[in-house]
């Protein structure tokens, strides 16, 4: 498939796909006219790259880990690196859950204040009547 089709199927911009190639995260065959052609497996690979970026991994880290994640080729050092990255992902999940819980508390308090006529605005640390 050509780069535009891969972009459409994955929701990733053509520019991002070119960046993935520059970072050795993705490769394409070139036609005699220079057009990129990707195998069907590129769709899954791009989706995986997006997931790893969303988890906070850098392009360098993704490039180092992809052989293990895609092909199952792993050295003890690479497995250790995967475990470390997983711990970082777990910590980010914990942090996000705490942030969500905090937002839920604020929403609950604000909703209760609206029902009682209190404002969420604080002056000198005290709720102000509307």
TrEMBL record:
MF (Gene Ontology): DNA binding; DNA-binding transcription factor activity
Domain HTH merR-type: 1-68
Record has DNA-binding as a keyword: yes
Pfam entry (one): MerR_1
InterPro entries tied to this protein: DNA-bd_dom_put_sf, MerR-type_HTH_dom, MerR_fam
Key words, A-Z: DNA-binding
Protein name, UniProt field: MerR family transcriptional regulator
Native species: Streptomyces spiralis
């Amino acid at each position: 498939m050509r780069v535009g089709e891969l972009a459409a199927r994955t929701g990733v911009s053509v520019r991002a796909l070119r960046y993935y190639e520059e970072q050795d995260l993705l490769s394409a065959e070139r036609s005699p006219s220079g057009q990129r052609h990707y195998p069907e497996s590129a769709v899954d690979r791009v989706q995986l790259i997006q997931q790893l970026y969303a988890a906070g991994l850098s392009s360098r880290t993704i490039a180092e880990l992809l052989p293990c994640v895609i092909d199952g080729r792993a050295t003890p050092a690479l497995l250790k690196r995967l475990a470390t990255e997983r711990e970082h992902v777990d910590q980010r999940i914990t942090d996000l859950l705490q942030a969500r819980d905090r937002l839920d508390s604020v929403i609950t308090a604000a909703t209760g204040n609206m029902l009682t006529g209190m404002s969420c605005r604080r002056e000198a640390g005290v709720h102000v009547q509307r």
